[in-house]
Amino acid sequence: MKNAGALVGFLILIFAGTLFFQALSFDYYSDYGPGPGLFPLWLSGLLILLSIAYIIDCYRKNIIQLKDILPKGAGLRKIILIMVSLVVFYILAPFTGYSVAGIIMLMILFIKEYKWYWGLGISVVVTVVLFYTFYSVLNVPLPVNSFGL
């Protein structure tokens, strides 16, 4: 499919359809008025209608080619680098903990932009600040290693 607008419209349609069928499992009404299924059911139904209208519009007049919006050259390499660093973080975090995985992920991202020691320093500071903020201040459970980091 070369029409990027229609592709996005179909993805939104699938997402909205999934939300719609999940919203059917909630009660539409409760003893006190509208139930937890009312709002998501109507919103996902509206999103289904709007995505269908967008798909029709994309095929009628607003054809956006997929090759026109995808980056090329250095931009594509940066996007691939970001994806690789996220996959590395996802794989390492359960074993090494958030801190080590975060430092490695940020080092992968900073390695081409800064000298190695600046990249390492920024990675350590950012990871430690985020770990302290989420783990200690906000009490969000993060994966830790045997040292508690």
UniProtKB/TrEMBL annotation:
Keyword set, alphabetical order: Membrane, Transmembrane, Transmembrane helix
Record-annotated DUF1468 domain positions: 7-143
Pfam families: TctB
Domain of life: Bacteria
KW ATP-binding (keyword) present: no
Transmembrane segments: 41-59, 80-110, 116-138
Name listed for the protein in its UniProt record: DUF1468 domain-containing protein
Organism field: Ammoniphilus resinae
